[in-house]
Amino acid sequence: MNVELTAKRFGLLHELASGPAPLAVLYNPNRPDKSPIPELQAAALAIGRQVDFLSATTTRHIEQAFATLVQKRAGALLISPDPLFASRIVQLATLPARHAVPALFSIREFREVGGLMSYGSNFRELFREAGIYTGRVLKGEKPADLPILQATKFELVINLQTASALGIDVPSTLLARADEVIE
After folding, report:
1. In terms of Cα–Cα distance, which of 99, 135, 113 is closest to 26?
2. Domain 3-121+154-182 sits in CATH 3.40.50.300
């Protein structure tokens, strides 16, 4: 479901960085599931924003992508959901700060290490549901008889400490919609 939220994340990023500078998206082209590019191209066209796609498949590629991001003078960065990026939380939280580029992440753990904004599934809720399913199976229910569930709770988290360090004024409309604001 995280990939399907990409257009929503792009809209939030557009609201945060409403200037004329292009928005950038960091994505992993080796990801086996759905690519975020078609959905983001449509979202960018709908709001009249240019979007630059930066690919990375390794830690070194992430550094190179940020060099390109700075060269293209991107106004903000969307980091697409990907296990590679989730395993590089500190690197991906510090690089935007180092280059003074606001970034939006798909998981809230980025904000714990200084990330600016995240919008995505509530993993605590997902893990709780997984525990309930496990309990049902252990009590004898057949896994094939259990319904397939999708995430229904998504959270917007904004780190105002990071916004202040970057010199960014977060629009009040975003703050009003945030599930959590770190001050």
Report:
1. 99
2. no
